[in-house]
């Protein structure tokens, strides 16, 4: 009887808290009106939105700042003449735009790799993946150099007037430093985004935008260095972004994910090349289906060069 009584007491002691807990839940649910439930949902919505905008807001601003540099360069080139504006519009919109999409797509492979490594707390692999992406994209930049070197004959083959094609070729050659900055900038941006450090990218982009605006004004109006000088300011501004992000990374901004340069970055390069190539093709294919206006715009600029007054037509379309 004692043993049975003891067992009964144990069962009662275990059941009573459960009954009390369940009844408290029921009472709590009965006391919550619909307005409080709605307010709770709004609070959760605001919290999640704040988290999302903490990531998305700086990313949006950095893309706008980078794009604004091309717009500012075109605007200052328009003060130099119709031919200069047409040449820089073709060089930046067609040649750099084509190159931009390819390298951006290949660098997007880091979004998956770095995101998985950071989520698994395998922090040291983020730096290795970053260096592998630098190597692969740098080789891709070397292979795509003919796009810049032979821009003039290609544009003439497409029906562009000789004066526009020649000057566009000069601008394209002057943009080769910007071409190589892309292979370093895009991977390090994905590297920092995977660690939720988008505010760093935004601050560096804003600084580069301010510097670019000031230098462009000095080059055009104060020093009068012409079109090539205007293009050089674009190179400086884009490399300023690379230097700023790289300095933040190696100078203590990412102590867990950056442990210096490693020979491990040269291991497994072929697999990384295949992943980057697939990512680049995927972005190209998706952009060609869902963002056809980007391709239409580039095609229209090239086709406009076949009109009678090509310089004015290309200038108007670019504006």
What are its keywords?
single chain; 319 residues; mainly alpha; 14 helices
Provide mean pLDDT, rounded: 79
Can you give the helix content as a percent range?
Answer: over 70%
What is the string of SSEs from the N terminus onward? HHHHHHHHHHHHHH
* Biggest pleated-sheet summary: none
Radius of gyration: 28 Å
Number of strands: 0
Large-scale geometry: globular
> How far apart, in Å, are the first and last alpha carbons?
96 Å
Task: List the total number of helices.
Answer: 14
pLDDT below 50 for ≥5 consecutive residues: which ranges?
1-37
The total number of structural domains is 1
- Counting helices, strands and paired strands, the structural category is mainly alpha
Describe this protein's structure.
It is a single chain. This protein is mainly α and 319 residues long. The protein has one domain (55-318). It has helices spanning 2-31, 34-78, 82-107, 109-119, 124-143, 146-149, 151-157, 162-174, 176-193, 198-222, 226-253, 269-290, 292-304, 310-318. Helix 3 packs across helix 12 and helix 5 (124-143) runs antiparallel to helix 9. The longest helix is centred in the first third of the chain and has 45 residues, at 34-78. The radius of gyration is 28 Å and the shape is globular. The chain crosses the membrane at residues 52-73, 85-113, 134-155, 200-220, 226-248, 269-287.
């Amino acid at each position: 009887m004692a043993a049975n009584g003891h067992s009964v007491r144990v069962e009662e002691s275990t059941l009573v808290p459960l009954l009390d807990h369940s009844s408290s839940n029921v009472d709590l649910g009965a006391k919550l009106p619909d307005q409080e439930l709605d307010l709770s949902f709004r609070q959760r919505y605001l919290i999640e939105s704040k988290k999302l905008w903490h990531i998305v807001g700086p990313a949006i601003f950095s893309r706008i700042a980078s794009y604004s540099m091309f717009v500012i360069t075109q605007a200052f080139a328009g003060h130099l003449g119709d031919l200069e504006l047409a040449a820089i519009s073709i060089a930046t919109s067609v040649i750099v735009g084509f190159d931009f999409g390819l390298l951006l797509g290949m660098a997007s492979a880091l979004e998956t790799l770095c995101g998985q490594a950071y989520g698994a707390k395998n922090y040291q692999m983020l730096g290795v993946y970053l260096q592998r992406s630098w190597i692969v994209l740098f080789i891709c930049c070397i292979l795509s150099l003919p796009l810049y070197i032979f821009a003039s004959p290609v544009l003439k083959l497409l029906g562009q007037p000789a004066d526009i094609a020649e000057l566009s070729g000069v601008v394209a050659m002057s943009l080769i430093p910007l071409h190589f900055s892309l292979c370093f900038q895009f991977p390090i941006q994905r590297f920092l985004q995977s660690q939720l450090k988008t505010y760093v990218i935004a601050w560096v982009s804003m600084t580069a935008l301010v510097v670019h605006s000031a230098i462009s004004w000095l080059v055009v109006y104060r020093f009068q260095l012409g079109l090539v000088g205007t293009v050089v300011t674009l190179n400086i501004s884009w490399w300023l972004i690379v230097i700023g992000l790289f300095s933040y990374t190696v100078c203590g901004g990412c102590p867990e994910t950056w442990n210096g340069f490693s020979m491990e970055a040269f291991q497994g390069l072929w697999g990384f090349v295949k992943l980057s190539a697939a990512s680049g093709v995927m972005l190209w294919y998706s952009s060609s289906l869902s963002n056809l206006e980007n391709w239409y715009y580039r095609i229209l600029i090239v086709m406009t060069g076949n009109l009678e007054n090509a310089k004015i037509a290309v200038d108007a379309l670019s504006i």
